[in-house]
Amino acid sequence: MSEMSRRTFLWITGGSSIALATDSPRKLVNKLIPKVNPPEEISPGHWTYYATTCRECPAGCGMHVANRDGRATKAEGNPEHPVNRGALCPRGQSSLQGLFDPDRVTKVLYRSGRKHRQRSWQEAFDSISSRLAAGGRVALLSALQTGAPAEVLHAFAAAFGSDRVLFYEPFNYESLRAAHQQLFGLPVIPRYDLEGSDFILSFAADFLETWGSPVRQARQFSDGRAYREGESPTRMAYLGPRLSMTAGNGDYFVQVSPEQLPVVAAALLRVIVDRGWARNDLGVLRPALDTLLNAPSLPALDQELLLTVARGFTSARRPVALAGPPFAAGPTATQTALCVALLNYAVGAIGSTVDFSRPHALSGSARDAELDLFFSSLGAQDVLFVLDANPAYSRAGAADRMARAGMVVYLGSQLDETAELARWVLPTDSHLESWGEYQPEPGVDGLMQPAMGRLYDTRGACDILIALAREAGRPLRSARGTTPADLLQWLKERRGFGGGEDEAERGWQAALRTGGTWQETLPPGTAHTPHLAGISFQAQRPPGPARAEDVELWPWASIMLYDGRLANRGWLQEAPDPTSFIVWGNWIDLHPKKAATLGIEAGDLVQLTSVAGSLRAPVRLTTEIHERCAAVGLGQGHSALGQNARGVGSNAFLLLDAVQRAGFFTPCRVSRVAGNAPRPIRTALSNDQLQRDLLESVPLSVLRSAKPQVERFDLPLPEGYHADRDLYPKHEHLKHRWAMTVDLQRCIGCGACAVACYAENNVPVIGPELVADGREMAWLRVPPYRVPGSTWRYAWLPLHCQHCDAAPCEPVCPVFASMHNEEGLNAQIYNRCIGTRYCSNNCPYKVRRFNWVNLAWRTPLDLQLNPEVTVRQRGVMEKCTFCVQRIRQAQYRAAREGRKLRDGEVVPACAQTCPAGVFTFGDLLDPGALVTRLTRSDPRRYHLLHELNTKPAVTFLKRVDNDVV
Description:
Largest sheet: 7 strands, mixed
Number of strands: 39
CATH class of the domain at 697-961: Alpha Beta
Shape: globular
Radius of gyration: 29 Å
Helix content: 25-40%
Structural class: alpha/beta
Strand content: 15-25%
Distance between the termini: 92 Å
């Protein structure tokens, strides 16, 4: 028996053997390695930021990914990127959970029978290349690609004599492109510029959530809605069947069913034409409009409201009309989009707010007819390559049609429904591990670069195709006739940075630092002339003898889950829906009147059946959906993908017929079925403020006529204390008194701040069972509240620790775990806390969270943890810290540089990611700081629950209600 050294004995008895036994992929390193030669570009203990492009949806926002000691730990928006200007949506924030997803495909898999077994890369290359060399015909179906990756895909197909390359996106804006083809001869999705737009008319286009470029549009919308003395905020009217988050932000909401939308759009257009309010003549369209307006299904419209909307839209300086939803197809959706395009032409928006010179990249995604032709062409001789797309989940009948191919090869990072059908599954890099580029629109060329080294034995998708072609004896050639060895060479050559010259290398490095290249300004758009002579509309079908159980389906896209590709991410599953505040699942919305006729009660298990399929889900009764409709969220109901997605909710894509695709007026039958329905998990019990004035608002006319008096607004500073009514002594803050303002007028309810808080502060995902028991851990919540006096308008209240100067939580803690620090923060000392929860009982804002259980971070999610934030354990209270780690970083940086902190240098995670610019953070002891000016002088300022005299450091700025005329 060999001798055991003292070091080895201590190492084993210290528990390392247990760690190795339970975590076999982590290799044993039995010696210390001094960083005399540190890894390239990595400074131990320091942050390194990599500029890249977000690929969580086709919007193409710019990102900065923070890397610490070789680990990517946080995604932020790139402030220089023209699409998002430094902000990110919840999906962009969650990109790190895609990188570190425990359910990622980590090995090459080969399906034998119904099971996948591990194989080597060489075995896969030999099998696939030999099939290709033997005459296998190539068909390639990919998620949307542009630039160099798109060139590689086309070159790969061409190398084997094929042109069957399609870019598949479930949200392909089919109806919008068809309408623009018919009207302008341009089958594209134009850029909708809301910058400076003073009236937005949305026909079921949720442009603050999933439609178009949501982050850019949210910023532009919030800038237009922001309160400025002497200016009128942007107005917005929403017409659609469901009260979405976007609709809840509007000034007008006209609830109409999907079938009625083109009729209402035509009626609005007819009002504008008949009253002479159009800037361009549309008189030739009167007969065509009459075809729709004389239909027997014409809804009973509020003519006064219609006139108000028409007048506001036509009198605006920069109006714009939007047609949605992005997945809509069929005659009803196309006619709606056609009327919307005519509305834009009528008010002169073409070439102004609607710019066809900057078409969106989604204009190149496959249409339904192209997909049908593609699937119909598949046969036994075909090798079907599917790259990061999941048609087996999102398109009815696609799985059976793909099975006709002789071999299916899936390239992706998740074992989703399509991957489970494939013969070979080739694991690809996450977009945070790979090179690439993406161009969301002309003039914006975003680069992608690895933000960290590979976690697993994966490869870039394009590198796999290049290697496969080489193995089959048909190396790929670029447009210049060269044969690049990988995508990086292809990319550098395409951008003109090849050759290794100093100047080219400097240009390449500059592009990497910036995150790409883009033109800030392009020539103004062209006011295209429409082809009005050939415009015609189909008459709406006459109403038949409808049965009580007949409804119109309204599937809607979740701001968190998009089309379902992100459903395995715990942050997004646990982030509440903005209006219902439901987490972990989806449900069916029915109007109470419709439910009453069918004997359906809230919480019942309900089945929806269409010609394509059926689903079951619990029902929620609400007037937020049209009486003739049933609404259900997309993105849930996976049978694969991963632990967080599998079996959660129901798949609404199953109801959409792939041949006569709907989504926009899909006839369905609704019925109550036996069985126990999974109870929807709602983390806000009521939308009613119960006369507590939590979320205050003020009419615009009141602000203009006389500034309202601020009652009992006490600053969290010594001057805010009064001996006659203050129990506790004042605090003296020698250097800083950190504070925040929250502009409720800007908040749209998207929840990006809450997800960013999860990412920054190591907030654990606890799962549906614990959330249902009230054990949620979110430090920041954005609950929706009904606007008083309105039956449909929503407002949102971002709520985290208020860092009170007279904090009720501090004096009740028996061990001084909750204490007031020297800079005004209400600090929580975790290793003092003994879990009495007295502080939580005494907190009137209920923003403290208690760890009831020890939660395990599934490997490798632990690699994403922020090393500057303590990971808490059972029995400890936690809460918002104003991102104190960021405060300290800024202070250390200023000290090293021998200067004072600058205003705006400290930016908490919630403020950094917010697309709407809701949060302002700074030092109240700095008289020139923006937070000081807003806190001391903004006429809208108030403190939440001010009657308790807690002197919060968070000042809310009231919502401003547009005077509805």
